[in-house]
Amino acid sequence: MFNIDTTLFELLGYRMSLLELLAVLTGLAAVWYAARANIVTWIFALVNAVLFFVLYYQVNLYSAMVLQIFFFCNAIYGWFNWKRQSSNGDEPVTLLSHKARVFWVAGIIAMALAMGTVMGRIHLWLPDFFPVRATFVYTDAMIAVMSIAASLLCARLKLENWILWILVDIMSIAMYAMRGIMLVSVQYIIFLAMAIYGFIQWQRKIKSGGY
Questions:
Q1: Crossing angle, helix 98-119 and helix 62-85, to 10 degrees?
Q2: How do residues 37-85 score in pLDDT, each as one tens digit?
Q3: 142 — phi, psi (to 5°)?
Q4: Would you say 123 and 61 are in contact if contact means Cβ atoms under 8 Å apart?
C-alpha cells in the first residue's frame, strides 16, 4: 500500500502512488499554514515527515530520508515553542543579527560537505540497510542541511527561514525531476510560490510590529 511502485491511479501517463500523493498533500498543508504563521503547520509537518521518510528510503535519497527524523522532532519543538509564545496561533516574527546570519551560512556549508561525504559512502558501511549508492549526493546533502536550518529558524520565528526555503525549493525542483519523482518536483514548484508568499507575509508582520 505505502510503496512508491504501487500505483493508485494514472494521470497524463504518470503513475501516482498513495504514498507520494499523501506526502505531497500534507507537505502543501504544512507550508500553507507556516506561511500564515499558524501553529497547525506542525501537525501536518509531523505526518509529512513520516510519509517522506518511507518515500525517500524507497528512492535511495538517504540524506533526505535522515532529514525526516529531524523534521519529526522539530515539529514537536515548533509546536511547543509557538504555543509558548502565543495562545491564539498568530506568532511574533523576528530577524537574525548580521553575526548570526554569517554563522548560519558557514555552518550550512560545512555540514553539507560533511553530510555529502558520509552519505556518499554509507552504502559501503551499511550495505544491509543501504544496498544502493545514494543519488545526487552533495545536492541532496545541501538541500537536507539547508532544510534543517530553515526548519529551525521557522520554529524560532525568524524571517530568514523563508530565504533558505526558496533556495531549497529551487534545487529540489531540479533534483526530483531528474530522479523521476515528478509530483514531488511539481510540489516544490508550489512550495517555491508559497515560500515567496510566506516571506512577504512574515515581512509584513515585522513591519506591523512583530519585530
A1: 150
A2: 899 999 999 999 999 999 988 888 787 788 899 999 999 999 998 888 7
A3: -65, -45
A4: no
Average pLDDT over residues 116-132: 86
- How does DSSP classify residue 157? T
Q: What is the rounded CA–CA span in Å between residue 178 and residue 135?
A: 10
What is the C-alpha radius of gyration for the chain, rounded to an integer number of angstroms?
17
Indicate yes or no: pTM above 0.70. Answer: yes
CA distance 147 to 209: 27
CA angle at 136 for the pair 131 and 140, rounded to the nearest 5°: 100
What is the C-alpha to C-alpha distance for residues 6 and 31, in angstroms, rounded to an integer? 27
Element (H, E) at 19: helix 18-35
Q: In whole angstroms, what is the distance from residue 110 CA to residue 105 CA?
A: 9
Q: Where are the domains of the chain?
A: 7-210
DSSP secondary structure of 74-137:
HHHHHHHHHHHH-SSS----B---HHHHHHHHHHHHHHHHHHHHHHTTHHHH-TTT--SPPSSH
CA 75 – CA 98 distance, rounded (Å): 26
For the residues 176-186, what does the mean pLDDT come to? 86
Angle at the Cα of 68 (from 65 to 74), degrees rounded to 5? 160
